[in-house]
Amino acid sequence: MAKIDLRRRAEIGRQRRIKSRTQIVEAARFLFTSRPIASVTIEDVTKQAQVAKGTFYSHFRSLDDLRAAVAVELSHTFEDLIDTSGLYAADPVARIAAGCAVSIGEAQRDPAWGALIARGACAFPTFAKPVRECLKTNLRLAQSEGRVASFSIEVGFDLVFGIILQAIRSASGARMSPADAKDLVQAILRALGVGTEEADLAMRRIYETTNVTRDSGSAQTI
To answer: What is the CATH number of the domain that holds 35?
Structure first.
């Protein structure tokens, strides 16, 4: 009788679970992008993922759990875009500008991602939380350094996040050019009270010395 390799069997089982979970999340992302999120059912997801309903429940207790998983994935992707943009981590104004520029650039590169971000910001309450905290932190730092106007942090967040969400919608719908995106980011900085000279410097840092948009997997500047 052949000896059973329990370790190998366990590894195969683990890989299958990872694969099936990935299929479910990717199916949900596709459906959430192509139709109203609230209309998507478990049956829709399992059909799109080509898995049994029992497989769905082995990973998620409900659609809410699946939505939360998609929200976490979106949040991590959003954070990674900023962290890998090459921006100066210690400069709050540059990081605000980078977050704006990189998110618009990614929506232009990947319209499906942009559409999901725009929808998910409203449909997934947990999605915006880390983005909100990051933006608020940078706004507070910039205010403490006297580099932006003195206003409520909530007002500053709503100003930036609201404009960016609309910009992502436009970018994912091919209604915004790279030049438009650049002008919009600069307009956001000016609306926050950043001085003209500093806003110009931040824009040069972003669009001349960092990788803001990517095309077919390779980096390029706008």
So the answer is: 1.10.10.60
Global pTM?
0.75
Measured distance CA(57)–CA(215) in Å, rounded: 37
Pairing status of strand 213-215 against strand 218-220? antiparallel
Q: Determine contact, residues 206/212, Cβ cutoff 8 Å.
A: yes
50 in a structural domain: yes
CATH number of the domain where residue 170 is located: 1.10.357
Q: What confidence tens digit (pLDDT) does each residue in 42-71 have?
A: 999 999 999 999 999 999 999 999 998 888
Alpha-carbon dihedral angle through residues 27, 28, 30, 33, given to the nearest 10 degrees: 170
Q: Give the pLDDT confidence score for residue 91 in this predicted structure.
A: 84
Buried-exposed string 17-49: b where 16+ CB fall within 10 A, e elsewhere:
eeebbebbbebbbbbbbeeebeebebeebbebb
Are residues 130 and 216 part of one domain?
yes
161-180 burial: b if 16+ Cβ within 10 Å, else e = bebbbebbbbbbeeebebee
Residues 45 and 134 reside in one and the same domain: no
